[in-house]
Amino acid sequence: MGVPVATLKNSSQLTLPVQLPELAQFSLFVPGPNEMAVNYIRELDTHSFQHTAIVGSDGAGKTHFLSAMTDMVHNRGDVAMYVPLEAVRHQSPALLEGLEEAQLLALDNIDAVTSNAEWSVALFALINRFMDRQEGHLLWSSKVPARSMQIVLPDLQSRLQAATQFKLAPLDDNEKIQALKLHLKSRGLILNDDVAEFLLGRLSRGMHGLMQTVDALDQASMREQRRLTLPFVKQVLNL
C-alpha cells in the first residue's frame, strides 16, 4: 500500500509536503481499551460535518491513530490531510487556508499552537469554514481537553469544546507486547513471548521508546541476517 503525501496549499500557493509514517495503518494499530471509540470514529459519515477530538498522554497512540485515519480515507479515494502542528508551529498559519475542502483534516497536537494568537485566529476561522460547508471531518488531537488548554482566543476554546471528545487510554503490558509483535511481524520478524516480556521488563514502557526498539531490531536483524533470539536482542540493545 502506498503512503499518502498530504500537500497543504494556501492562497499564496505555499506548499508543505507531509509524509505519513509508513507503518501508521489501522492494521498495525492495537486499540486495547479504546476499541469502541476507534470504531465509532472510523465509521463517521464525512459527507456531513464531523468534529472530533482525541485526547491522550504522550505515547497513547494519538499520532498513529490520526495518521491511520488519514491513510484509510486517502485509500478509499477521498481527500485526506494530516498536519503535525507541533512540527509546523513556526510557519505561517496561512497554511490552513483551504484545508476545509478535505473530507478528512487531521490536526495533530493542536495544543502546540493554541497559545499563539495568529494560530488561534486561523484555527477559529478554519473551524468556521468547516461549519459553513457542513461537510467533512475535522479531527484533532491534544494532550489535554480543550477546557484545560492554554488558548488565547476564548471563541476558539468554545469551538474546540464543542467537538465530540474521546480519551485514548494507554495500553497495558499484554497489549504492548501485542503491538511489538505486530509491528515486527509486518517487517518479517518473529518476536517470541519470552523475548517480548524481557524487553518490557528492561526498557522504557512508553510506546515511542518501544517503537524505536522495533526500528533498532529491524535494522540489526536485516544487517546481520539474524533471528530475534534473546542473546541477539541483548547484544543489539546492550542489555
Descriptive key words:
239 residues, five-stranded parallel sheet, two-stranded antiparallel ribbon, 42% helix, Rossmann fold, Helicase, Ruva Protein, domain 3, single chain, alpha/beta, 9 helices, elongated, 2 domains, 15% strand
The parts where pLDDT drops under 50 for at least 5 residues are 1-16
Topology as a string of helices (H) and strands (E) = EEHEHEHEHEHEHHHH
CATH topology of the largest domain: Rossmann fold
Kindly provide the radius of gyration, computed on alpha-carbon positions and rounded to a whole number of angstroms.
19 Å
Q: What multimeric state do the chains show?
A: single chain
Would you write up a description of this structure?
- Residues 173-237 form the Hda lid domain.
- Pfam families: Hda_lid.
- The chain is an alpha/beta fold.
- The chain has two domains: 26-167, P-loop containing nucleotide triphosphate hydrolases (Rossmann fold, 3-Layer(aba) Sandwich); 173-237, Helicase, Ruva Protein, domain 3, CATH 1.10.8.
- 42% of the residues lie in helices and 15% in strands.
- The protein has helices at residues 35-42, 62-75, 85-88, 117-133, 154-161, 173-185, 193-202, 207-224, 230-237, and strands at 5-9, 15-19, 50-55, 80-84, 104-108, 137-142, 164-167.
- The chain has a five-stranded parallel β-sheet with strand order 4-5-6-3-7. Strands 1-2 form a two-stranded antiparallel ribbon.
- Helix 4 links the parallel strand 5 (104-108) and strand 6 (137-142).
- Helix 6 (173-185) packs across helix 7 and helix 6 (173-185) runs parallel beside helix 8 (207-224).
- The protein starts with a strand and ends with a helix.
- The model is unreliable at 1-16 (pLDDT under 50).
